[in-house]
Amino acid sequence: MERLDKIISNLGYGSRKDVKSFVKKGLIEVDGVIVKDNGMSVDPEKSVIKVNGEEILYRKYVYLMMNKPEGVISATQDNKDETVIDLLELDHQVFEPFPIGRLDKDTVGLLLLTNDGELNHRLIAPKWHVDKVYYAQIDKKVDEKDIIAFKNGITLDDGYKCLEAKLEILTSSDEGAEIRLTIQEGKFHQVKRMFEAVGKKVIYLKREEFGGLVLDPELQEGEYRELTDEELALLKSY
Predict the structure, then answer these.
(1) Catalytic residue list
(2) Residues spanned by CATH 3.10.290.10 within the chain?
(3) What is the pTM of this model?
(4) H/E element holding 124?
């Protein structure tokens, strides 16, 4: 059971103050009865709620896929920089979603957002071994020795030894390289620090996959969409 005004405001129909006004005007019905108390308790999954004659579609959680652009931070709020939440429409912001894990400010690509705390925990907890796949451009040549080093576990500058990672070389020359890297952790600046550990620098980084989900090629940087039922089922299979 939840408060009626909370249910309606969370679905983007206005603030709780607005809902109170709607009730005074007789615009809200629950199971065919005009509501007189905006704070009444309702089971939103069993009751039929109408606002101004329109039946509302209740849902507790929201699941979003974003192509994060450069220069935007993976946070819910910040006093200086634009956040990924700032890129959302108001009807998604009202669910108060948060990023699942983080992408660095200058990293682009697949970022998932939700208000489902349980799913968030399952996807970022190391014990679940969720794959994260990145495409990167490197400033130097990458070779077989690097593949072996990443497979054996790179030791970062703070002494932490990473789990086994799969490094795939797409192109490589003395001018630089393009690679694809699969990791199962999310340490601070991890991909960049892994390459720094072998004397190389990441000059461009994009996350292409997370938990089996592939970034929708139709999404331009800064755009997002809701996950399909199939995509959500795939994530929850972890």
Answers:
(1) 104
(2) 2-56
(3) 0.83
(4) helix 117-124
